[in-house]
Amino acid sequence: MSWKVRKRCLDILAGEEGFVRKIWGEALTVCLAYPNAYRTGMSNLGFQAVYALINRHPGSLCERVFLPDSGDETAHAASAAPLFSLESQRPLADFDMVAFSLSFENDYPNVLKILARAGIPLAASERKEKDPLVIGGGISVTLNPEPLADFFDLFLIGEGEALLPDFLNAAVALRRKLTRAAFLDRIQKEISGAYVPSHYEVITEPEGRITARKPLDAAYPRRIIRRTAIDINTFPTEQGITTDDSEFGGMFLTEVSRGCQRGCRFCAAGFVYRPARFRNAAILEDSFRRGLKKRRTIGLLGTAVSDHPDLIPLCRSILKEGGSVAVGSFRLDRLSGPMAALLKETGVETLSLAPEAGSQRLRDVIRKGITEAEIFSAVDNLLEYDIVRLRLYFMVGLPTETDEDVDAIVHLVKKMEHRARHSSAGKKGFRSLTLSINQFIPKPATPLQWCPLEDTAVVKRRIRRITDGLRTEKSVSVTHDLPKWNYIQALLTLGDRKVGKLLLAVHRLEGNWAQAFREVNINPDFYVHRRKETDEILPWDFIDHGTEKTLLVSEYRKALSEKILEETRP
After folding, report:
1. β-strand 97-101 against 28-34: which pairing, if any?
2. What DSSP string describes 91-156?
3. CA 66, CA 439: separation in Å to the nearest integer?
4. How many Å apart are CA 264 and CA 483, to the nearest integer?
5. What digits encode the pLDDT tens for the residues 511-545?
6. Which of 25, 146, 158, 332 lies at 20 to 30 Å from 105 by C-alpha?
7. Facing residues of 298 across strands?
8. d(CA 85, CA 188)
9. What are the chain's domains?
């Protein structure tokens, strides 16, 4: 290992407060991997929570590894040393397990990069007894792990607090006493939420549809239960390591809620993280006090922060201690006058809101649950308290979307801006309205999982329609993601095991997806652009996500009329 690479690790650790350094000995050793840059990974509260969970177990030790950034990658390559952990600078191959925290499908190619740089065989079937077990967890693989099935020995499906203690108890007791195969066999049979892909056979028709899925041993569960931590008041989920070198370096992050009771038809969080759970005020205030010793700003995280019944008194408790509050996207129908006044008092200058669609018809299709009257009531409340910088999230490519629905986004934003000018007698409107336009991507375990991704050319045209329609609005700017990458994300979200062949080719071709599509005999449009039938077996149907399929089908049919379904049926 070169001194330059080692010094980089030491510099990172010197800038952290709260990292754990355990002594190697008899403990089960786990290297927790985030398949993206350090700055991104250390902003992920789930990653930090798992790190703390493993290290709290008396029989286990956890260190971290990240995808090297461009400068670090050059130094790693020059050193010719395999990728190593941050805390002890030990090669990943020395660990009992390498566990990936997976939140985003577009990070999947980075998993293979990390394994390759660590000298660990990419295919699970090619690993030997001495190789670490490669484990995956996180929301993206809880939804659908199948595109990564060939590369992982084991997935843990569900929330870490519910699943990891059982798994770690078994791993500490058994991992070094059993062979690799025997350990995985025991885990599959005994740990609810564990999924060993090699223990299941998937049978498909020539055109690609799944006809059957069978466990190779009758003792293996036919369905994998997504594990849920029912009472989140029994543990904190907060930032354990603080560092300035992260995307939220200036704040202390703590989770105030989990799950969502709204049931927006496009949103996985509203279905996979059910039921909605809110931490009580006393527990959160303790977390705030710990956080304010480290940072002045408390970042409130959760899928439904603005639905917390005690949000206003909780924010006031932070202010009372001399801190400030940061929140993510806010529900428009929760922006009352008192809430807007409090946000202003906390120092909020920019607020993120998510109308998602411009027309009421389309908001009803996705079951967003907000009206135009509620949108403008929120606007009035924000203007009254001089919160005049907004980021607005909209989607294009939604099911049943028309050009009129896209034009409705332009009309809605113009009305918001004109209302702001009118309310201030023409002196000022919004200082900035930033539109973030994202393409709708169907997600597993949601009512819209059977919908196809909209064609890239159509999405580009609709984004251009929005941009052109708002060109004369000086305070309005439009940002959007790249539709071609949305296609890749949809493929990795909706795919089955065959998609792993594409990932392997993309790795070999150093990220060239176009060349991989030409070389691999797989039709990606089959996964991305095809409307699925509600009675077919989907790649992720073997996971019990906690929501009955009949409910998803019912919500799907409420969203799309029978006439539309018949017209689009293949």
Report:
1. parallel
2. BGGGSSEEEEE---GGGHHHHHHHHHHHT--SSGGG--TTSPEEEEESHHHHH--GGGGGG-SEEE
3. 28
4. 23
5. 999 999 999 999 999 999 999 999 999 999 999 99
6. 332
7. 252, 325
8. 28
9. 3-225 (3.40.50.280), 328-568 (3.30.750.200)
